[in-house]
Design brief:
Shape: elongated
Helix content: 40-55%
CATH architecture of the largest domain: 3-Layer(aba) Sandwich
Order of helices and strands: EHEHEHEHEHEHEHEEHEHHH
Oligomer: single chain
Number of strands: 10
Radius of gyration: 25 Å
CATH superfamily of the largest domain: Tetrapyrrole methylase, N-terminal domain
Number of helices: 11
Strand content: 15-25%
Largest sheet: 5 strands, parallel
Number of domains: 3
């Protein structure tokens, strides 16, 4: 009888965040395939588990996969784990799982912690579903397209992605040119220095001026208020435009108008029309100095 590949979620920080089922599986399998055997070894020792470990990471997953499939065919069950959270979610494992399934062998998920779900649950985001984008590309051209697509998607639903501490400032700078509504940043989830804060990208740049730890970012959707957009006055639009223009985030009047439209869920035409009406109203109030 063939063995089973168990895809086991492990804690993202706090070692108590592991299920009883996960502990049982880690004890019973013949082998644990781990992204980092040292990190997983600490987890196993904490719970007095002595199952043998085999490294399986992005650089050796292809080479290890046939050997693991052979073990499974011989009747040995294997647990797949990554450094933290659920394997295959921006972590190694998808290649092995796909190969095991293609070989007609059993794959059984053992659910548990995920930084994505944990962050969303604590952020209080109102959204009909969400999208997960992994890590932003490194190269500038690819990043620009990636962020533009991300912001476009976020108008309909929340989007979640990860970022490394040494690139967080760059990411927030890029976001500040594209979105002016509050976003959420979760740092070091379930760990001693856990933080979950909300703010515009410009505010978060100042807050995380020396970022340390692992970051999960959430861009909430643009909420459509039940009230008619006509309830927003020209004066409110004008004030919002002034705040964005004064902040220095927008490079032009056009960028400021787009930011106002996004914040207030209006069309840019509505914003321009309101600004023009306010301008005409102020001109009419000025005294006639001719004569």
């Amino acid at each position: 009888m063939s063995g089973t590949l168990f895809v086991v979620a492990t804690p993202i920080g706090n070692l108590e965040d592991i299920t009883l089922r996960a502990l049982r599986v880690l004890k019973e399998v013949a082998l644990v395939a781990a992204e980092d055997t040292r990190r997983t070894g600490n987890l196993l020792r904490h719970y007095d588990i002595h199952t043998p470990l085999l490294s399986l990471h992005e650089h050796n997953e292809g080479a290890r996969t046939p050997k693991l499939i052979h073990r499974l065919k011989q009747g040995d069950s294997v647990a797949l784990v990554t450094d933290a959270g659920t394997p295959g979610i921006s972590d190694p494992g998808a290649q092995l799982v796909a190969a095991v399934r293609s070989a007609g062998l059993r794959v059984e998920p053992v659910p548990g912690p995920s930084a994505v779900i944990t962050a969303i649950s604590a952020a209080g985001v109102r959204s009909d579903g969400f999208g997960f984008a992994g890590f932003a590309p490194i190269k500038s051209k690819a990043r620009k397209k990636w962020f533009e697509r991300l912001i476009s998607q976020s108008r309909d639903h929340a989007v979640v992605f990860f970022e490394a501490p040494h690139r967080l400032q760059r990411t927030l700078q890029e976001l500040s040119l594209l979105v002016n509504r509050p976003i959420f940043v979760a740092r070091e989830l379930t760990k001693l220095h856990e933080e979950l804060v909300a703010g515009t990208p410009a505010e978060l740049i100042r807050l995380f001026n020396q970022p340390i730890g692992e970051f999960t970012l959430i861009i909430p959707p643009v909420l459509v208020e039940p009230a008619d957009s006509t309830a927003i006055t020209d004066s409110q639009i004008h004030d919002c435009f002034g705040q964005i223009a004064d902040s220095g985030l927008a490079r032009s009047k056009r960028d400021s108008a787009r930011a106002v439209a996004e914040q207030l869920n209006l069309s840019t035409k509505r914003v321009y029309d309101a600004l023009e009406r306010v301008k005409l109203g102020e001109l009419k109030k000025e005294p006639d100095r001719r004569g």
